[in-house]
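Provenance

Sequences were taken from public entries as deposited. Structures were produced by running a predictor on each sequence independently, with no templates supplied. The record for Helix-turn-helix domain-containing protein from Mucilaginibacter antarcticus is shown for reference.
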Amino acid sequence: MSKIRKIIRMYTNGRSIMSIAAQADTSRNTVKKYLASFKDSGFTFE
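Predicted structure for Helix-turn-helix domain-containing protein:
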């Protein structure tokens, strides 16, 4: 679960999907999937 939080935190800080994927050691498609779920949920990262 901490990897997903890390990805969302980097995204809300303005990082690009490519740099998030490199930093989190995951694929860009996985990052896109996590971010799409985050946006659809309506939650905020606070």
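The helical segments are 2-12, 17-24, 28-41.
The chain has a mean pLDDT of 92.
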